[in-house]
Structure formats: structure tokens, C-alpha cells
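Note to self: keep these together.
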Amino acid sequence: MFHGVPVLKEARLSASKPLPLIVMSHGYRGNWRNLNWLAATIARQGYLVAAPDHPGTTTFDTDPEQAAQWWQRPRDLSRTLDWLLASPAYGSHIDPRRIGAIGHSQGGWTVVSLAGGQVSSSHLAHQCREPRLSNGCGLITELGLSQDSDLQGRSRNLGLHDPRVTAIISLDLGLANSFTPQSLAAITVPTLLLAAGVNNHNLPQALESGYLARHLDPRLTDYQVLANATHSTFMGRCKPGGKAIVEEEAPGEGKVCDSVPGTTRAREHQAIARHVTDFLARHL
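Structure:
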């Protein structure tokens, strides 16, 4: 239903020196293919890219018990790094000093966790009194974010922060309000926040990405609102007839294929890619 990207299956690496590595995290009920267009763009710039699925919150794998283990998402990325760095096939090709993480939607939340964001159920419950946060806040029980009075302590004790990641990019994340302001202020890695200016998934950027921007170190943070982007713009382009297929499989979700009148997803992808590659060039 979505356009793919051309690849060489099992192609061999031929780089003469170690390359920077990017790990990617998909959104809630999405999958690694959602950002394949961006992965290919980055790879063409000379980066290695790894994009795992997240069990329990992945397309056709939405297990409530696994989804409630919210701490497994950042751990999925850390385990991916562990495997790649130890791999005889890839390890010697990776520069361990240049590792970044990119995430869309819940994937954005995942990479912020990886950078040191700590969650608090009491803080999130207070923030969710804001009615405009109904989309993300409607998922807090399903994602295990309302069950523990000491969620922040667990977040800290689980050791989700991975110091190997030295730059992060969040693409229109949700559930930003689960992070405590104190933990966000303590994040020390460069961060790019790209937010959708058109709110078609009830994830208002001013209350989501904007919340991060207000509490992260402004010296390390680049916050951009893309006026003609929706939450789904960050995903791949739908093929002709793709919207009908999505709607049949998930009624009401065909809107993931829609673009804002007057622009195209391909055009918006160019703008997103420019922000991402410029940021990575500066920091990795």
C-alpha cells in the first residue's frame, strides 16, 4: 500500500572507514517500513541505518501485555546497538562515537527515553486534564503509563538512557507530557524536533513537540514546525489505491494517505529530509 525503496539485497559494505549509525523507531502500531523513505535518504548520505520493529506495538503485532511494557521500546534500540556493534559483519564499519536515533510518533517518545527522558504517571495524569491531548492520553492505560505511582523511579532505575546515542530526532511525537520537566532539562545531546503544523490526529504540536521544546536545553535543541505537514506526512507515500486498502484493514485510518491541499507528500518529504540531513551533518 506504500511505495518502497530500491535496495540491493544482502549488499556488502565497502566503506574504507567507520560510518555513523542511525537507529530508527516507528510509531504506535506502525512498522519499520513507515520510515523507509527517510532511511534510504540518509543511507545515500553515507550513514548506516537500522530500523527494528517493536513487538506489541507493531502492525499486525499489537499485544496488550507487551505494549504495556513501555520500557521495552528504548531497550529494543539499545539491543539493536548491542547486536550491531558486536557483529562481525557490521561492527568494524560503525563509528561508535557517531550514533543517532530517529523516531516518529511513539518512536519519537522512544528516542527521547533513550536520551534520558524519565516518565511520571502522576505528572502525565495532571497534564492529561488538558482536553486537547485526548489522543495520546487515551492510550496511557494500554501503554502501561497509568499503573504505577512510582513510574518515574522505575524509569530512572531501569537505566533506559543509552549514552552511546549522541544525537536524537523526534518526528511529531505523542505522549511528550509523560516526561518530567526535570529529566528533559538534563538531556545533554543535540535534539531536532520536527512537528506537524496540521493537527489531523489530535496531537497538537504546541502541546506535544512544543512541550519538549519548552523544557529541553535551548542551546541543544532545534524546533521546527512544518506548516503543511500532518502527523502522517512523516510516513511513506501511499500507492494508488493504498488509502482504500488501509481503510479496509483499519477503518478510519485511511487518512494516513492524505496530504494537505496545495502540497504533496513528496514535496514535504524533501523538506523533512533537508532538516534531518542538515542536523545529522552538524552533529554526527
